[in-house]
Amino acid sequence: MRVFRYGDDVNTDLLFPGKYTYKASTPEEILPHLLEDLDPDFARTVRPGDLLLAGRNFGCGSSREQPVVGLRAAGIAAVVAKSFARIFYRAAINQGLVLVECPEAVDAFREGDAVLLDPSAGTIVVGDREFRFPKLPPEILAIRDAGGLLPWTRHALRRAGGQA
Length: 164
Fold this sequence. Notes:
This protein is α/β, with parallel strands linked by helices. Helices cover 35% and strands 16% of the residues. Helix 7 (138-146) crosses helix 8.
């Protein structure tokens, strides 16, 4: 797992440039433009299982879905930040992207540190230090495992004998 680290106030335009909002809607169209104005190498170098560390107010800005869809499609295991913008946080749940608020872990990270994250246990190990955060509820983990809220809802309806 590689770690990409960014600062405070990374807004949705930095995550996915607004000029593509009406030109890109599928993961395949979104992926090449992820973070292109913040980290031009990101889309080319990101791999499934990688992790983002960020400062305060990650995901501030508009309520566009493309940044979250793109991060999920890129295979980002989680975003660990000091804090998140509320609307981005909700969009991440909807898309099954794990977000963890743990300022201490973000501050502790040094380039080259190994990072191990266990959202169900509420732990993150950075280098040789372990940090705790509130465990993610089983419902949010189930949405992640299903690939997002829509697939989770379809599955729940089928289990209940309804239409999907």
